[in-house]
Predict the 3D structure of the following.
Amino acid sequence: MLERDHAKCKVTGVSELGLVEMTRKRTRESLEHILCEPCSQCQGRGSIKTPVTVCYEIFREILRQHRAYDTETYLVLASAGVVEYLTDDASDHVAELEAFINKTIRFQVEAMYSPEQFDVVLR
């Protein structure tokens, strides 16, 4: 089974409880490194979600709201970076989601929102 694993594995023995002891080298970056970026407010000591990550959270929230409530349109309130990504780079995905739920999705920039903060308002 280990011969099919691409990661480097090392079996060190069997424990007193009969468990196989082994180590496995990581082969890809952590999820935090993939889904987040360095925080500009604290000079990179922390991390915040990327606009792409927040957009997919918004898509999931819209689908959740669609299953729970019957509404005409959705208004997404988010930071400027997230709204810009949604209207430019992810516009195809937004159009697909609108077609899937058969509802209109509108966007509004909220200057006081942090890059990770958003709200989906039913209209």
The two ends are 54 Å apart (CA to CA). Helices lie at 31-35, 51-68, 80-87, 91-101. The chain has two domains: 2-47, 50-122. The first helix runs from residue 31 to 35.
